[in-house]
């Protein structure tokens, strides 16, 4: 079985009827090379960490170009296709040839997925029937609120009633995973409870709640903080409690990012599985492991159980894959081992990291860890617990092997 991704292109804020008020890509200015694992050893900056992270691409691709790419990619697919996913930097619902594209892909009689849509481009509720008739099987759909006035104001949705009607119709026929960024004082409290009730009644499979980010330490690494001046942000702990409470009182699955999936227990669900922990390799090397503020306590516990005597170094940045060189500048170098493991996907150039972490005169080696150690809510939403545990077993075992290989 294989999976085909259909990239329609597009640019955030341009090909989506304008930025939502809370959009991560809003206020991005200029182009700066952050550095990443794809950069050449002697050169900081590549397409991924300079342009890709900003999704700074041209507008939507023409239907002809998309169809040609699909045909070319089909030649490379091994085995039978089991899924086709429509994605892009722009919002699929705003793609000018959206109906034609759906009908073209639908003629292949393979289940269609839409990786993300805000629904802001849906002005006619009848589009839901077109999607269903052409084999749409799953969609991730931003709801924000079931209150159309809130969608109109905060999402810049010109036709919120139509967007919600499409969402409601799809919920009754296919697997719909709704999503909502939670803005304290705007769409939380009773508004959020009513949105949950509305989605339950409609038949949604689940709801992913996303904690609003407004500062660099919460993940705004593109020089665009604050997104909404003066807007309150929940603490990670308060947000986790909100997710837990709503999930306990709902018939559909509710999870949150950066924390957490109450049904599965992730991230780091393996901490509740002592038998699986025993199957991980023993730690025999000594290194310093750098990670984000959310993962640090749990990762320290896992590694300590397997014999790790070093320390997991917590930076202020909450999400490990969004760590930048600025975070490394703040690390206290006293007690830092001569080998430092960084998150595999963090936006740091390895040579620059080694320079920054060796500025006390101790020459330190930087090594990349695995790309994934656990599953966030967006990953785990459609997964079974055993699948998440397998991700954690694989990622943590790889990390321990790296520790043992490079550690003293």
Describe the structure.
The chain is an alpha/beta fold. The protein folds into two domains: 2-257, Aldolase class I (TIM Barrel, Alpha-Beta Barrel); 269-406, Rossmann fold (3-Layer(aba) Sandwich). 33% of the residues lie in helices and 15% in strands. The protein has a seven-stranded parallel beta sheet with strand order 1-2-3-4-5-6-7, covered by helices on one side. Strands 9-8-10-11 form a four-stranded parallel beta sheet, with helices on both faces. Helix 4 runs parallel beside helix 6 (160-171). It is globular. The model has no long low-confidence stretch (mean pLDDT 94).
Write the layout of secondary structure elements.
Layout: E1 2-7, H1 47-50, H2 63-76, E2 81-87, H3 98-106, E3 112-117, H4 127-133, E4 136-142, H5 148-154, H6 160-171, E5 175-182, H7 189-202, E6 206-211, H8 236-248, E7 253-257, H9 274-279, E8 288-291, H10 296-305, E9 312-314, H11 325-329, E10 339-342, H12 350-357, E11 365-368, H13 377-380, H14 385-406
CATH-assigned fold name of the largest domain = TIM Barrel
Low-confidence stretches: none
Superfamily (CATH H level) name of the largest domain: Aldolase class I
Counting structural domains, the number is 2
CATH second-level architecture of the largest domain: Alpha-Beta Barrel
Number of strands: 11
Largest sheet: 7 strands, parallel
Q: Provide the gyration radius in Å.
A: 22 Å
Structural class: alpha/beta
User: Between the first and last Cα atoms, what is the distance in angstroms?
Assistant: 43 Å
Mean of residue pLDDT values? 94
Helix count, DSSP H or I runs of 4 or more residues: 14
| Approximate strand percentage | 5-15%
Percent helix range: 25-40%
